[in-house]
Amino acid sequence: MTSKTKISLALVAIAAAIILPVSAISIDAAPDTGNNAALAETERINKIAEPYFAAKDQLNRAEFELKTLQANGTSAQVSDKQTQIDQLKDELVSLKKIIAEAERETIEKYKIEPILEKKLRTAQSSIDHKDLPVSSTSVSGLEKVLIINLDESRFEEGKDRAYYVALFEERFSDIPVKIRFNVAVAESCNGVGSNCDPLVGGIKIEAKNHGYCSMALPIERNGVDGFLTAAHCVDDGSGSADDVFQPTEDWLGWNKVGDVSIIADNADCDCAWVDQSSSETNEEAVWDGYNSWEYITSYNNRPTSGTYVLVHGATSSLGWTTVDDPNSSWYNPDTGITYDAVLTVAHVTAGGDSGGAWTNWDSDEFMGIHAAGDSAGSYFTPWENVNDSTTGVGPLG
Questions:
Q1: pLDDT grade, residue 341 (50/70/90)?
Q2: What distance in Å separates the CA atoms of residue 375 and residue 365, rounded to the nearest whole number?
Q3: Contact indicator for 357, 300 with CB cutoff of 8 Å
Q4: Which of 5, 55, 117, 358 has the most CB atoms lying inside 10 A of its own CB?
Q5: Domain residue limits, the chain
Q6: CA-to-CA distance for 116 and 122, rounded, in angstroms?
Q7: CATH match of 190-397 with 3.90.700.10
Q8: CA distance 376 to 379
Q9: Is-contact 330 338, C-beta < 8 A?
Q10: Which of 211, 244, 247 has its CA nearest to residue 42?
C-alpha cells in the first residue's frame, strides 16, 4: 500500500436473531449475559483496586523524587523520602491482599473447570473470521459455553443457517456451543482504552500482574498473527508473562488477546512479540486519536535528526515531536540495562504509553516501540532493532 488510507469506525448494527432449536448446539438471540457479568465483576474489582493504584502512583513519584534528593538534597531529606517510600510499600502490600481476596471471590463464582476452559479457548482461537461468516466469539464463564455470533449477510451463496449449525456441530462436538445469528456487534475502538475489535497500535493492553501499557502494532511472525509491545510491559522478571489482555485484565480472563511468545530485553531492544490467541480481527494500523486509525505503509529502520514523529499510546493517545538524537540511549534501573534508542526533542509521553507505536508524521512509516521518557525527551526502540530481535516479524497477510 503506497497511499495514506483512513478508516472511520462505525457500529455494525444488524437485525435481531430468531431462536432456532437444534439438538447438539444451543442457538439463541439473548444478550451475552456471561460477558455482562464479567464487566460488572471487573468494575467491582477496579473500584476496590483504586486505592492500590493511587498508592502505586505516589510510590513512583516518591522514588523519582528520591533520586533527585540523592543527587542534590540533604541527608535528612533523603531519609524522610525513604521513610515515605517504605510506608507506601507496606500500604501496597496490604491493599494487594484486599484485591487478591476480591479476585478470589470472583474467580470462585465464575471459574470454568480448567480442562473445559482449555477446550473452549482452543476452539475459539481456531475459528477463522475471514473464511467463515463469524462476526465475533466469546467464552461465557457464566454459561460455560463458547458463543459464536454469525452474520447472515456473509453467508456463502446457497448456504443457510442449518448448514453452518451442522458445520459447527460437527467441528465442536465435544464442547458446549451457543450459536447466535445477526446480533449487533460493535466494530469498536472508539478510544485507546476501549475494548477494541479490530486490534490496532496505540491501544491499551495489560499483561498479567502488570500495570497497563500500549500495543505497538499488529504484525505477523512466520505467518502467525500477533502484535508488538515493549518487553518491560510483559516481563515479570522471569523472562515471560503468559497472558496479555485488552484493554485490561478482567480477572476472569475473558479479555485475553494473546500469549507472550518473544521477550527481547537487552541492550538492543526493549521489545516483545505476543501471539494473538483471541478472536478479534486486527489491522496493520495505529490509532490516530480521532476515532479512526492510520494504516502503516512502510517501515523506517532509524529516523534521522529533525524527523517529525508521532507517538500513539494508551495514555497520551496521540502526541508529536521531532527526533533529536537517532543514536541515543536510556538506562533502566529496574533491569540495569542501557538500551540503544532514538531520543526525541520533547518529552511527550506518560506512564502507560510504554509499548506504543512511533510513526513518521508525513509518511505513515512505523519507526519503533515506545520505551521511556525523562526530562531529556522520549525514547523509542528503532524498528531495525525490533526487526532483528524478533526474527520473522513482518506485515500482516
A1: very high
A2: 26
A3: no
A4: 358
A5: 17-182, 190-397
A6: 10
A7: no
A8: 9
A9: yes
A10: 247
Beta bridge partners of 343: 325, 379
- Give the span between the Cα atoms of 58 and 88, in whole angstroms: 8
How far is it, in rounded angstroms, from Cα 314 to Cα 226? 18
Q: Does residue 307 register a pLDDT over 60?
A: yes
Pairing of strands 177-181, 145-150: parallel
CA distance 78 to 95: 26
Report CA torsion sign: 154, 160, 165, 166. negative
Grid cell at residue 226: 500477533
Closest CA to 383 of 322, 331, 340: 340
Query: What count of other Cβ atoms lies within 10 Å of the Cβ of residue 85?
Result: 16
Distance (Å, whole) CA 75 – CA 68? 12
Question: What does DSSP assign to residue 177?
Answer: E
pLDDT at residue 118 tops 60:
yes
| DSSP notation for 144-210 | TEEEEEE-GGGPPTT--HHHHHHHHHHHTTTS-EEEEES--EE---SSTTS--SSEEET-EEEETTS
**Residue 18 pLDDT level (bands cut at 50, 70, 90):** very low
What value does the mean pLDDT take over residues 171-175?
91
Task: Pick the range with the lowest mean pLDDT from 6-20, 38-52, 124-138.
Answer: 6-20
> Is the Cα torsion angle 62, 63, 67, 73 positive or negative in sign?
positive
Q: Which of 4, 125, 130 is nearest to 396 (CA)?
A: 130
Backbone angles phi, psi at 253, to 5 degrees: 85, 5
Mean pLDDT (the chain) is 80
On whether the CB atoms of residues 367 and 383 are closer than 8 A, the answer is yes
Instruction: Give helix then strand counts, H and E, for the chain.
Output: 5, 25
314 and 353 Cβ atoms separated by less than 8 Å: yes
Q: What is the tens place of the pLDDT at every residue in 52-97?
A: 878 877 887 888 888 889 888 899 999 999 999 999 989 988 988 8
Element (DSSP H or E) covering residue 120: helix 114-126
Q: Strand, helix or coil at 146?
A: strand
How many angstroms from the chain centroid is the CA of residue 282? 12
